[in-house]
Amino acid sequence: MIRWGIIGTGGIARAFAADLELTDSGTVAAVGSRSLEKAEAFGHGRAHGSYEALVSDPEVDAVYVATPHPMHHANARLALEAGKPALVEKAFTMNANEAKDLVGMAREKGVFLMEAMWTRFLPHMAEIRRLIAEGALGEIVTVIADHGQWFAQDPAFRLFAPELGGGALLDLGVYPVSFASMVLGTPERVVTLSTPAFTGVDGQTSILLGCASGAQAVINCTSSAVSPTTAAIVGTEARIEIERRWYGPSAFTFTPRDGEPTRFETHLEGHGLRLEADEVARCLEQGLLESPLLPLDETVSIMETMDAVLAAATV
Ligand SMILES: NC(=O)c1ccc[n+]([C@@H]2O[C@H](COP(=O)([O-])OP(=O)(O)OC[C@H]3O[C@@H](n4cnc5c(N)ncnc54)[C@H](OP(=O)(O)O)[C@@H]3O)[C@@H](O)[C@H]2O)c1
Predict the structure, then answer these.
(1) How confident is the model at residue 314 (pLDDT cuts 50, 70, 90)?
(2) DSSP symbol at 282
(3) Where are the domains of the chain?
(4) Contact 118 CB / ligand 1 (< 6 Å)
(5) Is the CB of residue 224 less than 8 Å from the CB of residue 203?
(6) Superfamily of domain 123-267 in the CATH hierarchy
(7) Which residues are catalytic?
(8) Residue 99: count of CB within 10 angstroms of its CB
């Protein structure tokens, strides 16, 4: 039973705390906020009026960093410096350099660290990895995934405010980039087209990733419209089509080139965020310093791809 300490009291911190109630792998022991009042109003765990106090709490076994992306690096460092395993929200950091710094620190100190890319730990993704591993798709040719959500044009909102790490790519595009990484590995080529939102951060970004095998990923993200949020993995022997909100608990069909489709459904109570918490608990119990399902080198590679996308973006 992991006694979690949560840094931040925003939307995802609340969703994580609520979802933890559906697992017996962990519980919210404490929450840290920049304001004691907010920590007290959070309604889960002991309240701390600073992030420093939260990571120093001797009854916190692991820390979940649930602040905006520009704060992840400093907040995760706090946890690691205190010797506490850290689960860090996506996007893991603002760039690959920050990611490498955290990974280096975790390895030096021998402390567990993991990116909270919750999609990776969902049941349909486990089944997809199983099908790929047994060669059911043949040679993978194409990965297609989109992630578009509509947000009101509020310049103070996290997705639009540059100082809060705004931009469709870091918040939404990281999901399909991570998905492509899971299926195809690190890309050799990155091609990008980006359109700015009204604040100048990227509002829509389309990405082509090219792999040494010849396989390609076709990715789109936008913060100004609700897109289908479906995904596909296309192989020479079969294809997988993941239904709407592919990045959350979802269903998919597996269709052999000349055969009938079979459907996989996910039956999961709650949000599904607890599965990443279960993975942290499993790793800590086994004495692992990183998750084999989302190794730290892959998190760094994903952030390198994100850096390349932003560098290549033609705004
Ligand atoms: N896995 C998912 O499905 C998912 C979904 C949404 C978001 N996320 C990720 O989770 C992170 C947080 O997103 P969110 O939607 O929860 O954000 P949010 O609602 O704005 O909450 C962020 C929290 O971070 C703390 N914070 C520290 N410095 C801040 C600053 N300068 N400005 C604003 N807040 C600050 C605040 O807590 P205190 O004031 O109490 O310190 C705030 O409540 C992001 O990296 C995002 O990508 C993941």
Answers:
(1) low
(2) H
(3) 2-116, 123-267
(4) yes
(5) yes
(6) Dihydrodipicolinate Reductase; domain 2 (3.30.360.10)
(7) 90
(8) 28
> pLDDT tens across 93-146, in order?
999 999 999 999 999 999 999 999 999 999 999 999 999 999 999 999 999 999
CB 137 within 8 A of CB 259: no
Residue type at 70 in one-letter notation? P
Predicted TM-score (pTM) of this structure: 0.98
Helix (H, G, I), strand (E, B) or coil at 163: helix
Task: Report whether pLDDT(315) > 70.
Answer: no
Write out the DSSP string of 219-258: EEEESBS-----EEEEESSEEEEE-SSTTSS--EEEEETT
- Closest residue by CA, ligand 1 atom 21: 10
**C-beta of 83 in contact with ligand 1 (< 6 A):** no
Q: How far, in Å, is the centroid of ligand 1 from the Cα of 10?
A: 5
Cβ 250 under 6 angstroms from ligand 1 = no
**The pLDDT of residue 304 is above 70:** yes
pLDDT of residue 109: 98
66 within ligand 1 shell (Cβ under 6 A):
yes
C-alpha 312 to ligand 1 mean position (Å): 27
Residue 282 tokens, joined: 């499993």
Residue with CA nearest ligand 1 atom 24: 67
Confidence bin at 312 (pLDDT 50/70/90): confident
**Residue with CA closest to ligand 1 atom 33:** 68
Does position 239 have pLDDT exceeding 70, yes or no? Answer: yes
**9 touches ligand 1 (CB under 6 Å):** yes
Q: Whose CA is nearest to atom 40 of ligand 1?
A: 33
Ligand 1 touching residue 248 (CB < 6 A): no
Fold classification of 2-116 is Rossmann fold (3.40.50)
